[in-house]
Design goal:
Blueprint (H helix, E strand, L loop, with lengths): L12 H17 L2 E2 H8 L3 H13 L3 E4 L13 E4 L3 E8 L3 E8 L4 E8 L6 H17 L6 E9 L2 E2 L6 E4 L4 E4 L1 H9 L3 E5 H12 L8 E7 L2 E8 L2 E2 L14 E2 L10 E2 H4 L2 H8 L6 H11 L4 H25 L3 E6 H7 L2 H11 L2 H4 L3 E4 L6 H13 L4
Parallel strand pairs: 4-7, 7-11, 12-17, 17-18
Antiparallel strand pairs: 1-3, 2-3, 4-5, 5-6, 8-9, 9-10, 12-13, 13-14, 15-16
Helix pairs in contact: 1-3, 2-3, 4-5, 6-14, 8-10, 10-12
Length: about 375
């Protein structure tokens, strides 16, 4: 760990690792007493006190007195991740760019959604991100330390250098997004696939917390992406492109045409909007429209049922391959399932091998609209060596 973006090494690798260990414990687990940190790390009390003191002095954590609980004896101070160490999380989409300032305590200090009637280039996206950061630095984030930037892109991102190889819905091919944003802002930048980062966030903080084998599918304006967690670790593949469930060929009851088509072409947010008579909608608006039409509009019910049938078989195929304990659905995919969760779970189990479906849980993403931003923030904190 080096530079202003992370606790200082001071030439002592063991100490640097212990500093990072404590910081990660309070980042992932929330506020903890010094006594809890002593137990979790196996270090002695004086060492923990010394490490916490350094982190406090450098502004990475804050200490406070514990809430009164009627205990006898001197209470152990509570250590919290600092809310004034932030990264900028970015999620460009076909209809808008969402930008947020996420602090080390996982709070979202600021959020801005900038809608667009036309697709923005990678260059225009970098300029817009830089403009927002500059404005925030002069206003709401004055006095905060900006650690870096994490970007969740709906497309294939090369893990080695953050090159966006192909984001078809954005029209980006071999876009050097990381370099563009770094040049515009002067901050360290990390770029990843949006669904893979959503999977990471739900695994660490959301519906799949505590589960080590997870499949995550996200349905958004740009189609269907996915992420995979195996034995507690994200699976990226050799280039970082793993998890593209939306590109799998499907042929299931209710699928259109004589030939197989890709999943995201038939299980589609755009198709739901069309049958609802909507041009555009954010997730809350779409969810409300689907709920309102669920008992009155036969065409909406029929389209929703058709998409559920195809989605259930696609998930069953993934369950046969990966044997997860949890499948998490985000975006409009969760909305499809919420109208009949038990029926959907039965359909998945019927399409999968019985042994692979034993104990399987199918859950909606619990982080809602925050999942991609929190995933992007986690990527940024990790990439610059903070946690």
């Amino acid at each position: 760990m080096t530079t202003d973006a992370a606790p200082k090494d001071n030439g002592d690798g063991v100490r640097a690792r212990n500093l990072a260990r404590i910081l990660r414990l309070v980042h992932l687990g929330g506020p903890q007493s010094r006594a809890q940190l002593t137990t979790a790390t196996g270090l002695n009390r004086s060492t923990v006190a010394d490490l916490v003191g350094e982190l406090v002095g450098d502004g990475w954590v804050v200490e406070r007195e514990p809430d009164p609980v009627g205990r006898v004896g001197r209470p152990s101070p509570v250590v919290e991740a600092s809310p004034r160490r932030v990264v900028i999380a970015v999620n460009p989409e076909v209809d808008a760019i969402e930008i947020a300032a996420v602090d080390l305590a996982r709070g979202i200090a600021l959020r801005e959604r900038i809608e667009s009637d036309a697709l923005l280039s990678a260059e225009a996206t970098a300029e817009l991100v830089a403009e927002v950061i500059a404005r925030w630095r002069d206003e709401a984030l004055r006095g905060f330390r900006l650690v870096g930037i994490g970007i969740a892109v709906p497309g294939l991102v090369r893990a080695a250098d953050g090159l966006v190889r192909n984001a078809p819905h954005l029209g980006w091919v071999d876009a050097p997004l990381r370099a563009l944003v770094a040049s515009q802002t002067g901050l360290p930048v990390a770029v990843g696939n949006d669904a893979s980062l959503g999977a990471l966030a739900e695994h660490l903080f959301g519906a799949a917390a505590g589960a080590d084998d997870v499949i995550y599918l996200n349905g958004g304006p740009s189609g269907i992406g996915g992420g995979i967690i195996v034995h507690g670790l994200p699976v990226g593949g050799v280039g970082g492109y793993a998890g593209e469930f939306g590109q799998n060929r499907v042929r299931a009851a209710g699928a259109e045409g004589p030939e197989p088509i890709v999943l995201e072409d038939t299980v589609s947010r755009a198709r739901l909007l069309a049958v609802l008579g909507l041009q555009t909608a954010d997730d809350p608006t779409l969810a409300e429209a689907l709920a309102a039409a669920s008992e009155t509009a036969g065409d909406v019910q029929g389209e929703s049922r058709r998409q559920r049938v195809v989605l259930a078989q696609a998930i069953a195929d993934a369950v046969n391959i990966l044997n997860p304990s949890v499948v998490v659905l985000g975006g409009f995919l969760a909305m499809l399932v919420e109208s009949d969760p038990e029926g959907f779970a039965t359909a998945v189990a019927t399409g999968a091998m019985a042994e692979n479906a034993e104990g399987l849980r199918i859950l909606s993403a619990s982080l809602a609209a925050d999942r991609l931003l929190l995933g992007a923030a986690e990527l940024a904190f990790t990439s610059v060596g903070v946690i």
